[in-house]
Specification:
heterodimer; A: alpha/beta; TIM Barrel; five-stranded parallel β-sheet; three-stranded parallel β-sheet; about 40% helix; B: mainly beta; about 10% helix
Chain lengths: ~260, ~70
């Protein structure tokens, strides 16, 4: 057994037939500069990075697309800010034009204060986009039934939240996430709520196939250090999940043999 | 004629195309990360040169930003 043994290597993530050599997806929101994004991408090892569309700003400096293309990552446009299925579908179609990809992180938000998904509108938009040929990765509630419905309409993954976007509250309902993982036939990507590396590790230990985070890295005091910390959290969690943890017990179980203790 | 560009009314010559509007806005049309909707419908990149805008058209000019 060596450290290069297959069981110690992070296995690739497969979404819609594409293989990604990282189980960490990075959101680009909240970084203080394009340079900071490029550094976080490199340190995190991510291969899939989200971007958004907004009205042009004549004063904007630099192109995020140029920066991202130089890093070689795949782009995942989002529909952030959309409150109706109609707006989300149109935004996804615009993103397909803008970025030349039919992958979309589908967000249909139901409420300004919590930014929680609107389940009914999300399902409606997901179905329409799948029918239109998109690879749909929906940002969803931690609802096992909704996750199943999203998979049923053809989503390529489901992305349940750990807690509200940007809240950093971690995984509020690990039980539901486990149920989603048990039933899902597509990758489960923990999206939103990660505050620090242990949250990412816990998500992976529960069996999530990947973790997406933005604010946890971009708004950390030291985004570069946090990018590395969360990468290690994801990798540690993945290995631990595959390794099979010991069951929890109420009482101690000696790890040192109890026979042959000296008598004095 | 008047066109509503990102919610702002602006005057353009009749027959102005999407490509000409982008030039007027100094948007580098060839760049990735730009998308156009006219009256809530996507105008594919390949049709920017030939799509003429009507008086009163509502044009959304979007570009890539950090997010998500």
């Amino acid at each position: 057994m060596s450290v290069t043994d297959a069981s110690t290597v992070i296995d690739p993530l497969r979404i819609a037939g594409r293989e990604l050599r990282s189980r960490l997806l990075l959101g680009t929101g909240g970084f203080r500069s394009l340079e900071a994004i490029a550094t976080a991408i490199e340190v995190s090892g991510t291969k899939l990075v989200t971007v958004a569309l907004r009205r042009i700003d004549p004063d904007a400096r630099g192109s995020i697309v140029d920066v991202l293309e130089r890093t070689g990552v795949q782009l995942l446009p989002n529909t952030a800010g959309c409150f109706t299925a109609r707006d989300a579908v149109l935004t996804a179609r615009l993103a397909r034009e803008a970025f030349g990809t039919d992958w979309v992180k589908l967000e249909v938000i139901g409420d300004d204060r919590t930014l929680l998904p609107d389940a009914a509108a999300l399902l409606e938009a997901a179905e329409e986009l799948v029918d239109d040929g998109f690879v749909v990765l929906p940002y969803t509630n931690d609802d096992p039934i909704l996750a199943r419905r999203l998979e049923d309409v053809g989503c390529a993954a489901v992305m349940p939240l750990g807690s509200p976007i940007g809240s950093g509250m971690g995984l509020l309902n690990p039980y539901n996430l486990r149920l989603i993982r048990e039933r899902a036939g597509v990758p489960v990507i923990l999206d939103a709520g990660v505050g620090t590396a242990s949250d990412a590790a816990l998500a992976m230990e529960l069996g999530c196939d990947a973790v997406l985070c933005a604010s946890a890295v971009s708004r950390a005091e030291d985004p570069t250090a946090m990018a590395r910390a969360i990468r290690l959290g994801v990798e540690g969690g993945r290995l631990a999940y595959r390794a099979g943890r010991i069951p929890r017990r109420l009482y101690a179980q000696a790890s040192t043999p109890e026979d042959g203790v000296g008598e004095f | 004629m008047t066109i509503l560009v990102n919610g702002e009314a602006r005057a353009f010559a009749p027959g102005t195309t999407v490509a000409e509007l982008l030039d007027a806005l100094e948007v580098p049309g060839g760049a990735r990360g730009v998308a156009i909707a006219v009256d809530a419908a996507v105008v594919p990149r390949g049709e920017w040169e030939t799509t003429e805008l009507d008086h009163g058209a509502r044009v959304e000019v979007l570009r890539a930003i950090q997010g998500g």
